[in-house]
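User: I'll paste a sequence; please echo it back and then give the predicted structure.

Assistant: Echoing your sequence first, then the prediction.
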Amino acid sequence: MQKIILILSLITTVNSYAQTIDSSKIQLKNSAQTLIDSKDGNLLMAAYGEVHFNQPMAKNTNYNGSLDVHRQVLLFGYKFDSKTSFITEIEIEHIKEVYLEQAFLNYKAKPWLNLQAGLLLIPMGIVNEYHEPTTFNGVERPLINSVITPTTWREIGAGVAGNIPSIGLRYQFYGVNGPLGFDQEGKLKGEKPIRGARQKGSQVTMSDIDLSGRLSYYGVRGLNLGISGYFGKTESSLYNNLHEDSLFQKRQADSSSIGVQILSGDFRYQRKNLEARGEIIWMNLSNTEKYNAFTGQNIGETVYGYYAEIGYNLASILKSKNKLVPFIRYSNYDTHHQVTSSIVTNPSYKNNVITGGLSWFLNPNFVVKGDYQQITNGNNKTVNSLNLGVGYWFR
């Protein structure tokens, strides 16, 4: 709790400091929004990618390192007219896996109102929407964005999104299908609750509508504040061909699904050479006792995670034109923060993570990265790794 209070205090301090500097407003845009706002023509293209080297480190044990073309992503957009556009994002992971990360229609009904429908990114936290390698420090994305709210989390749905520059506010509200919690077996895991349950737009099972939303405030120069929410339940194949008069079938189906409520708060701050960011996530899962008994899984009732990061651009000190940012990030998460009496808390699901490294921008759109990461779990087992990588983004 003391660590959480510290993170919130940091956010408040940064906000108070920024308020005294400048009141101009700068909206951050991800790849999709950049294409939507582009005036370069009807057919739009962009791309990003990253190559990683990961080397586990230990005193008395040697490990092989791993080289991986982690992802190469192509983005395409087409503007049918001044109001209607289509955006899609195709990702190739590890050379051999091909995914559709986004595919949605955007209709600009008003300057402040867009109607969107298709395969949409869930607007949760920072990295799920801003995951280009030039937008974050560290070779790998922050761990809480892999373990708790997995990137890249996308589902099929529809909703509204818009920007109100006069007050520095962007909003997003969508109705989407839920994660697939059961299909012949339980898909939800105690270590990474939702990650294996993402449906990703592929032959989606759906019986209920989940709601997701986000408000982003950018009304102070250099500062972006966000709050995100997700409310619904997981889907289950057992609701298919369910006879309403069969209590046995209904009890089975109800035991194969859980309720999901997620709240997330985040900030990003950049002023001159200083940059900082942080995020806190709280997840509540209901009906876990029946789900665990039915599936044999070990889902916890509450999950939390947070991180705080600070970096400083040394370019001016070194009299260099290229941005050079040493940074340090502290993360903490626990996917078994609270559990029902029917399962045992797993200490290995609680982790402290310290990541320190360097981001060297040879160009604003091309970055060379390196970091050293230490992960210590609740069993006091520590894993160290050296990570190197390159990343790019262009349009």
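The longest helix spans residues 2-19. The domain at 2-394 is CATH 2.40.160.10 (Porin).
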